[in-house]
Amino acid sequence: MLTIWVVMPTCLPVVLRRCHACPSERLRPSGKFRVNAHHKLIDAWLLALCTVCGETAKLTVLERMNVRSVRPELLARLHHNDRALTAELLQDPAVRRRNHMALDWTDAWRLDTGGGPAHQDDKSEAIEVSVRFAARVPVRPARLIADGFGLPRAEVERLIREGNLVSTIRLSGKLSGDFTFTLKR
């Protein structure tokens, strides 16, 4: 029996980058953009607020781009402060690299298992679970499995060591991509 779990974002992650006004290193994305045109060139920034002092920081999205080279749909989304665009740009590796920032997903996601803990409802010999990510949220697979089955993390680690919890990928470290695992009884 194949069960599908989905890791879903619940809000925008915190941006880890130093505030220019105080020693804080945490910024909250506001979901608003600032667009500025210089004749044929355009700049666009995602605005973020410091979690300590409230100062506004600008995260570069477009820099000195020719207006004609920017897709009209993107420009419209920037002008309308599209919240989905904010989430897309925060996960874009090029934007993160350009702005020297990382994301903190703590308390910004949830695991949707389609119901309660799966191990209590099913009496089969093995349970196969496919984990899908709605966004690239880096999460430890052992934590997901523990949350999904309602088990302590130490129990999940024991199941992995004993070979009763198997996957084609390593279940240690962090993942942000889809994977499948099997829990044997």
Describe the structure.
The protein has 185 residues and is an alpha+beta fold. The protein has 6 helices and 10 strands, in the order E-E-E-E-E-H-H-H-E-E-H-E-H-H-E-E. It has helices at residues 72-79, 83-91, 93-98, 118-121, 141-149, 153-162, and strands spanning 2-9, 14-16, 26-38, 41-50, 56-66, 102-104, 109-112, 126-133, 165-167, 179-184. Strands 7-1-8-10-9 form a 5-stranded mixed beta sheet. It has a 5-stranded antiparallel beta sheet with strand order 5-4-3-2-6. Helix 5 crosses helix 6 (153-162). The longest helix is centred in the C-terminal third of the chain and has 10 residues, at 153-162. The two termini are 13 Å apart. The mean pLDDT is 92.
Helices, strands, pairings?
Blueprint: E1 2-9, E2 14-16, E3 26-38, E4 41-50, E5 56-66, H1 72-79, H2 83-91, H3 93-98, E6 102-104, E7 109-112, H4 118-121, E8 126-133, H5 141-149, H6 153-162, E9 165-167, E10 179-184
Parallel strand pairs: 1-8
Antiparallel strand pairs: 1-7, 2-3, 2-6, 3-4, 4-5, 8-10, 9-10
Helix pairs in contact: 5-6
